[in-house]
Inverse folding.
């Protein structure tokens, strides 16, 4: 089965894990700190904070920024549910914003403007598929409205521009991301005071960690703020360090595969629309395709599956999931809903080759042709 996403794991990761086990220290320690510095260096910033998931990263950012009950946060519905969930975690209210269009499935500035009210305190931008939102436009909007600007950069690790938009950015290293630690995430925040607040809240609000107390020969610590158990462990950090060394190369492979997809799709599947321009800044996490309205998506999925090709959908709109539909029964985002009804995510990962892309496009063309009713002649 050709999977939509597949991690690249090998001898480097095995050696890194073995070294951690042999060291006898598997909780948060020196490797986590080394990983934080390496991730920050890749993103051309001073420091980063490693955590156990991107969800934890979003929660910590909102918590440290003081977002809470009575506040509203603008969020996309075209995202993974964690983006909205993190707002509920701090007691605030997510306000769903439509996308700009099927061609540019990023949060709409116009709709954000319309939904911004007296209680709106922040906006979470999600770089869908690894394609960056317009930094200048969103910074101007946030400045004009007095909003805190947060990036959900789960799809964009390795892009230096990710993490430069506003107060902080959250990254994901889940198993299907551009690099992986199995579970894991990181935070970039350029204000040292905000970084320190997030770092302390990551580990129960404690003033020191286990390794720090060992090195200082003192068992004493204090708890100065409400905190959580969102630490990254040494095993994941070791895998992350091995992955970071190859992330830039992997992202370039994704870029070249994406360009080849666009070239072949224009020729063999002209009825399929591919979002974004080929020159759009991106980490190329996803290869989203918008099927023609005449195509039955499930039939296309089944036909590709029969040929050993997995596809999926990014995403079912969050506001239409049962939990949020019950909270927001009147929420209607027509552009998001149309996009989600027609979107199909094709395989894209560094284990693929140009020949693999050719097979996928040919299979998609055949699947679409099989669904066209034959013309009845007299």
């Amino acid at each position: 089965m050709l999977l939509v996403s597949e991690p690249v794991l090998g001898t480097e990761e095995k050696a890194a894990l073995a070294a951690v086990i042999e060291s006898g220290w598997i909780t948060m320690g020196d490797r986590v700190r080394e990983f934080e510095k390496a991730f920050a260096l890749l993103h051309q910033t001073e420091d980063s904070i490693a955590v156990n998931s991107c969800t934890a990263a979003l929660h910590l950012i909102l918590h440290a920024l003081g977002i809470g009950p009575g506040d509203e946060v603008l969020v996309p519905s075209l995202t993974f549910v964690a983006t909205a969930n993190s707002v509920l975690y701090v007691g605030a209210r997510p306000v769903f914003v439509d996308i700009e269009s099927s061609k540019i499935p990023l949060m709409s500035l116009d709709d954000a403007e319309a939904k911004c009210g007296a209680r709106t305190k922040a906006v979470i931008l999600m770089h869908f598929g690894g394609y960056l939102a317009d930094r200048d436009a969103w910074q101007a909007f946030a400045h004009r409205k007095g909003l805190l600007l947060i990036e959900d950069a789960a799809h964009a690790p390795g892009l230096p521009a990710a993490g430069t938009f506003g107060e902080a950015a959250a990254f994901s290293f889940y198993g299907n991301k551009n690099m992986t630690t199995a579970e894991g995430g990181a935070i970039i925040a350029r204000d040292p005071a905000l970084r320190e607040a997030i770092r302390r809240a990551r580990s129960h609000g404690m003033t020191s960690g286990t390794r720090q107390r060992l090195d200082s020969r003192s068992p004493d610590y204090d708890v100065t703020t409400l905190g959580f158990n969102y630490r990254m462990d040494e095993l994941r950090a070791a895998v992350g360090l091995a992955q970071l060394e190859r992330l830039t190369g992997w992202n370039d492979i994704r870029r070249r595969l994406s360009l080849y997809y666009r070239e072949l799709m224009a020729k063999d599947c002209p009825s399929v629309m591919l979002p974004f321009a080929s020159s759009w800044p991106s980490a190329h996490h996803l290869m989203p395709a918008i099927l023609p309205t005449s195509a039955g998506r499930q039939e296309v999925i089944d036909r590709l599956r029969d040929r050993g090709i997995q596809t999926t959908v990014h995403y079912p709109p969050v506001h239409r999931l049962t939990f949020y539909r019950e909270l927001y029964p009147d929420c209607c985002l027509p552009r998001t809903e149309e996009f989600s009804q027609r979107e199909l995510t094709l395989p894209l990962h560094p284990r693929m080759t140009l020949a693999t892309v050719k097979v996928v496009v040919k299979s998609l063309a055949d699947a679409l042709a099989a669904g066209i009713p034959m013309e009845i002649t007299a």
Notes: The radius of gyration is 22 Å. The chain has 13 helices and nine strands. Strands lie at 49-51, 72-76, 93-97, 120-126, 148-152, 168-172, 185-189, 287-290, 343-346.
